[in-house]
Amino acid sequence: RQQPPPHRTTIPIPIMRVVLVEPLAVSAELLGRLSAVLTQRGHEFVSFPDRPATHEETVARAKDADVAIVTNLPMPSAVLAALPSLKMLSVAFTGVDHVDMELCRSRKIVVSNAAGYSTHSVAELSVGLTLAVLRNLVAGDATTRAGGVRSGPGGELRGKTVGIVGTGAIGTAAAKLYSAFGCPVIGWSRSQRTCFTEAGGTYVDTLEELAEKADVVSLHTPLTEKTKGLVSADVIAKLKSSAIVVNVARGPVVDSAALAAALNEGRIAGAGIDVFETEPPLDPAHPLLSAKNTVVAPHVAFATRDAFDRRASIVFDNITAWMDGKPINQM
Predict the structure, then answer these.
(1) Is pTM beyond 0.70 here?
(2) Strand 110-112 and strand 202-203: pairing?
(3) Which of these is catalytic: 220, 299, 310, 311?
(4) DSSP 83-152
(5) Which of 86, 206, 223, 263 has the fewest C-beta atoms lying within 10 Å of its C-beta?
(6) Buried b (16+ CB within 10 A) or exposed e, 224-241
């Protein structure tokens, strides 16, 4: 006689309130498709069309959230402490230095980042800034619009030795691009990775050695206590007079005043800077804004349509994985 199937008790999944605190800069169609994965499970999804102007506004939006989605919106202890329901923070950014991680750990709030979403975007801008400096593109644009003519020759990237500082995913992607231009690539990082050497890179022993050998120094390190001020006045002093410094990492990794002084005194040839100590708009007195042979950008390395679409997908994948008890990209 066939036995009846055993009785199984189904444990209901609690309904979660998921709040997108600031826009992800994707189409309404994509956002709807991604959020439908949550609402079809019975969860609530709420989004806001603009960025909160104050900490108080952030709290008001996320006060009842079980899950909050932010990009680079500051989430200090004062904000997090006012969100008692928060269990998971899905950060649509690679770095999480704008989040009080110590408080999150003490509260057991899971924090996941959008690892890898902007790898190629950032690597490409490193090369773009290098070419812009070498070929005097910004000055040439202004000269042409003013009715002027070519003032002098630029330089080629081919054959230049490129030094990659920070050889993680983005640094390695940049190494591959520079190699395609015919550049020998050297690297320095606190931990050496086979992916970098497989991409054709060669490690040097010290940052100072890299500074002495490289024609282009491209920065790709995260901001930590150990990397703050990493490219110091002493390191800058070891650069070639023909060297170009490109920073698409984090502003405080470089001593901006020392770099500006080297540029203005002609001790190095140029710089391409996408990141600063604070997010733009910048203080007009920032030393790099008036430095010679410097191309600046308002932190756009990560900001491409392709990257933003990838980022949104990762953010929602992080949430559903956490809900399923298998968190990914956890910090």
Answers:
(1) yes
(2) unpaired
(3) 299
(4) -TT--EEEESSS--TTB-HHHHHHHT-EEE--TTTTHHHHHHHHHHHHHHHHTTHHHHHHHHHTT----S
(5) 206
(6) eeebeebbeeebbebbbe
Identify whether the C-beta of residue 178 lies closer than 8 Å to the C-beta of residue 127. Answer: yes
Among 56, 150, 279, 305, the active-site one is 279
281 upstream amide cis, omega within 30 of 0: yes
The structure tokens listed for 69 are: 């989605």
Structure tokens at 265: 């005194």
Reply yes or no on whether 120 is catalytic: no
**Catalytic pick among 43, 61, 220, 250:** 250
Walk along the chain (331 residues) and give the pLDDT tens digit of each residue: 556 555 544 445 689 999 999 999 999 999 999 999 999 999 999 999 999 999 999 999 999 999 999 999 999 999 999 999 999 999 999 889 899 999 999 999 999 999 999 999 999 999 999 999 999 999 999 999 999 999 889 999 999 999 999 999 999 999 999 999 999 999 999 999 999 999 999 999 999 999 999 999 999 999 889 999 999 999 999 999 999 999 999 999 999 999 999 999 999 999 999 999 999 999 999 999 999 999 999 999 999 999 999 999 999 999 999 999 999 999 9
279 is catalytic: yes
* CA 262 to each of CA 155, 233, 288: distance values in angstroms, whole numbers, following the listed order: 20, 9, 11
250 has catalytic annotation:
yes
Cα separation, 316 vs 60, in Å, equals 22
Using alpha carbons, list the distances in angstroms from residue 311 to 26, 27, 47, 233, 303: 9, 13, 16, 36, 10
